[in-house]
Design brief:
- The protein has about 425 residues and is α+β, with helices and mostly antiparallel strands.
- The chain is about 40% helix and about 15% strand.
- The protein has 14 helices and 14 strands.
- The strands form five sheets. Strands 5, 6, 7, 8, 9 and 10 form a six-stranded mixed sheet that branches. A two-stranded antiparallel ribbon has the order 1-2.
- The protein is elongated and about 105 Å long.
């Protein structure tokens, strides 16, 4: 093998022009590639003789890693590439031809580097096993000669053409086995009364979940008083989750609830619930304030439980449905969605709210009911807005004085066609 002569560096490299710099890079690159090809020939010869017999190492990769100061992982591709480009000998002395002799010749000229060599070897490994030796050799020769000038994209295009020529029918189609969906959800209650929900969803369910939440998490439009939706996205997604849960619970086929939005077990007595002072147990999963229970009880299935001082149940009442399915259908037809001014929520996203609360003696009839979405339902219960039934038996809302000093009544006109 001829001796490789390194190019000389100019004494003052910073004075070199752009052509001189480019020429120097190409020269050193070629020297590096020629040296790498020569190194590969040495490693292939060591592999043929056996590193154990020559140096007492278990294999060529281990020996080369030690000599070169490399890790086993770094040394392995160098040795594998050297064996693929150069002929070796088997244990019985028989010749083992190189996998890519044309590519090796081009590499010896310094015209192709390790990355393109590996790309060619990967392409050759994807050629069908039943391809004839002649066709395989022809394919390698085409790729090797093409690598003199071609880049990675041109070699990839050549691979597609070669595989179309060598295997026009392609691989026999197989129906892929469907992957078992991976869906994990955990929910735990903290001591402060908040719940932590975490989960791991597969790609399909994750996309469906994101789409469903995004649909209900859009910011509310600016109202007539100029108030914008100031919720952060995470808060809007949390409210969207609550709406989706309401939809699921309200489904008539929902197991356990049969379409009832909430099952409230009143464990403190109705007097405390009326005053809003005390606590209630929501379906035996935790405590809620009596104030929150008043809101939940607007559209729910109520199970009153009278307790004595020792906490012993004295009387368990019968289940009572406050808003019947027929009343709910009539409400949907009348209000056509959330009745709060400028709210676009549809009936399926709404609760049936008692204008004069049932705990205060309010009747459950259409003149005392109004559809409200979850956000505006809470606003009516906990805010300064008021709702009443007008003379035409349609709900109207009275804003707080800080929004409108005259407190002029408002209605939602979004659900009704202009007259």
């Amino acid at each position: 093998m001829s001796e490789t002569v390194l190019p000389e560096l100019p004494q003052e490299l910073w004075r070199a022009g752009k052509l001189e710099l480019a020429h120097g890079v190409r020269q050193f690159l070629q020297v590096m590639r020629v040296a790498s090809a020569g190194l590969g020939q040495y490693l292939a010869e060591i592999e043929s003789r056996g590193a154990k017999d020559l140096f007492g190492y278990g294999g060529t990769v281990t020996w080369f890693a030690d000599v070169a100061g490399l890790s086993f992982k770094e040394a392995r591709p160098v040795v594998n590439q050297a064996i693929a480009l150069n002929p070796t000998r088997a244990l019985d002395g028989s010749a083992v031809p190189a996998v890519a002799p044309t590519t090796a010749a081009v590499a010896a000229e310094g015209l192709v580097g390790a990355e393109r060599i590996q790309q060619i070897l990967d392409i050759l490994a994807r050629i069908p096993a039943d391809t004839s030796v002649e066709d395989r050799e022809s394919a390698e020769k085409i790729l090797g000669n093409l690598a003199r000038e071609a880049g990675p994209r041109q070699l990839a295009d050549a691979e597609a053409n070669l595989l179309a020529w060598l295997d026009p029918d392609g691989n026999e189609p197989k129906d892929p086995e469907p992957k078992q969906p991976r869906r994990e959800v955990t929910i735990e209650r903290h001591k402060d009364g908040f719940w932590k929900l975490t989960g791991l969803l597969d790609d399909e369910l994750g996309a469906r979940t994101a789409a469903a939440l995004e649909a209900y998490a859009k910011p509310r439009p600016v109202d007539e008083f100029g108030q914008a939706d100031l919720r952060m996205k995470c808060e809007r997604l949390g409210d969207a989750w609550a709406e989706l849960l309401d939809l699921a619970i309200a489904c008539p086929d929902q197991p356990g609830t049969s379409g009832y939005r909430t099952l409230v077990h009143v464990t403190i007595g109705l007097d405390e619930l009326k005053t809003g002072i005390g606590k209630a147990c929501l379906d035996f999963v935790g405590e809620m304030t009596a104030r929150e229970a008043r809101m939940a009880a607007c559209d729910c299935l109520m199970l009153p439980v009278v307790m004595n001082a020792a906490g012993e149940p004295l009387d368990v009442g019968r289940l009572r449905r406050f808003v019947t399915p027929g009343q709910r259908r009539a409400l949907n037809i009348r209000d056509r969605g959330c009745a709060f001014p400028d709210c676009h929520r549809r009936p399926k996203n709404c609760h049936a709210h008692h204008i004069h609360h049932w705990a205060d003696g309010g009747p459950t009839d259409l003149r005392n009911l109004v559809l409200l979405c979850g956000f505006h339902h809470r606003l009516i219960h906990h805010g300064d807005w008021q709702v009443r039934m007008a003379a035409d038996v349609l709900p109207e809302f009275i804003p707080p004085q800080y929004l409108d000093p005259l407190q002029r009544t408002r209605r939602n006109t979004l659900h009704r066609a202009p007259s």
